[in-house]
Amino acid sequence: MRYFIHLGFDGTHYSGWQRQNDTQNTIQEVIEQTLYKLFKKTVSVYGCGRTDAGVHASQYVIQITLEDAPTFDLKFRLNKNLPNSIAVFQVIKVNTTQHCRYDATTRAYDYFVHWKKNPILVTNSSFYEDYTLDFDAMQKATAIIRQTKDFRAFCKQPDLYDNTMCDISHCALFINDAQGRLRFTITSNRFLRGMVRICIYYLLEVGRGKMTIDTFKAILNQDKKLKTTYAAHPNGLFLSQVTYPYLQLDNTNNLVTILRAGLE
């Protein structure tokens, strides 16, 4: 029996989603340890994608395969035993041929930036203090990202991939100058390692006047190469939506819907 588990997590104090040899401090490891506690045996967990250290997910899907249906309320027991930084929203029985990673048709990320000090936002938005930004220039750069197909220039490790093509179906920038906040959102059929955070770093460079629109476009088009690739802080980034052709996830508990207020 296969189950999709729809959850969210605050990645602030974790070393990312994926299990690693040199640390147990990953989301995957914590969930697998909790499942072992509940089932008294190893239950392997597969995730819908990777997230880096410090990155959050307001909508994330994992899958587990069990020999028999649980005799207890799995959602309740998981939430009782997982740390407060991980919350389970739904447990959904699916066919054994369905896969949480390979069946996902699109994923969306939201990135939040604030430049006015705010203690409430400290873990859920990246603080770039006293930045003066040219929002028109940033909107032009966002339009270039939207039109781009090959993101090799904005990938942390492009040689890991057979190709670096991404089909961007939505990409937008929302600004609330009064609040001193912005939101960048992007939806694609796939994402490359570090891609969104690299996009944000150079969007901010354009906004600060440190990089021209022409240079930004030339880099994305691979007409000009960066000597060193930088990425924005991890704490402003959320995996915010995962879509499947056969499943509608409950969006009620999606934290990003709250953070979007004033940025839509």
Report on this structure.
The chain is 23% helix and 24% strand. The chain is built from 6 helices and 9 strands. Strands 1, 2, 3, 4, 5, 6, 7, 8 and 9 form a 9-stranded mixed beta sheet that branches. The N and C termini lie far apart (40 Å). The model has no long low-confidence stretch (mean pLDDT 96).
What labels describe this entry?
about 260 residues; alpha+beta; Alpha-Beta Plaits; 2 domains; nine-stranded mixed beta sheet; 6 helices; 9 strands; about 25% helix; globular
Low confidence ranges: none
SSE ordering: EHEEHEEEHEEHHEH
First-to-last CA distance: 40 Å
Structural class: alpha+beta
Mean pLDDT: 96
Total strands: 9
- Profile the largest sheet: 9 strands, mixed
CATH structural class of the largest domain: Alpha Beta
How many domains? 2
Over all CA atoms, what is the radius of gyration? 19 Å
Percent in helix: 10-25%
CATH architecture of the largest domain: 2-Layer Sandwich
What percentage of amino acids are in beta strands? 15-25%
Put simply, the count of helices is: 6
Shape: globular
From the 3D structure, determine the CATH topology of the largest domain. Alpha-Beta Plaits
Summarize the entry for a quick read.
The protein has six helices and nine strands; from the N terminus they run E-H-E-E-H-E-E-E-H-E-E-H-H-E-H.
Chart the SSEs and their pairings.
Layout: E1 2-9, H1 27-39, E2 46-47, E3 56-65, H2 74-81, E4 86-94, E5 106-114, E6 126-127, H3 135-147, E7 168-176, E8 181-188, H4 195-207, H5 213-220, E9 237-243, H6 255-259
Parallel strand pairs: 3-9, 5-6
Antiparallel strand pairs: 1-3, 1-4, 2-3, 5-8, 5-9, 7-8
Helix pairs in contact: 3-4, 3-5
